[in-house]
Design goal:
3 helices; single chain; elongated; 3 strands; alpha+beta
């Protein structure tokens, strides 16, 4: 229980950052450009690591070594380019 409580406190402390970064991701995903921006945020137990699986960088749908989770994001938003910050 104490671990969960600490996770909730951490998430509330980072709420504005998490909200702002998620807004950027969804906004860029819904724009008419070919690029989606994934902004990472501080990990905590409730937010499941803040997109910890995605390494910062630029990824293209045409990359032969594109990780499955990056391809999933590109497919979901129907984009050709992913920028992870």
């Amino acid at each position: 229980m104490a671990i969960l409580f600490k996770g909730i406190i951490k998430n509330y402390q980072d709420f504005r950052t998490i909200e702002a970064n998620n807004f950027i991701t969804w906004s860029s995903g819904n724009e008419k450009s070919d690029t989606v921006i994934l902004r990472k945020f501080p990990p905590a137990s409730i937010t499941q690591g803040g997109n910890d699986y995605a390494s910062p960088g630029v990824y293209n749908l045409s990359d032969s070594d594109l990780a499955w989770h990056n391809k999933y994001i590109l497919d979901f938003f129907k984009k050709d380019k992913l920028i992870v910050e």
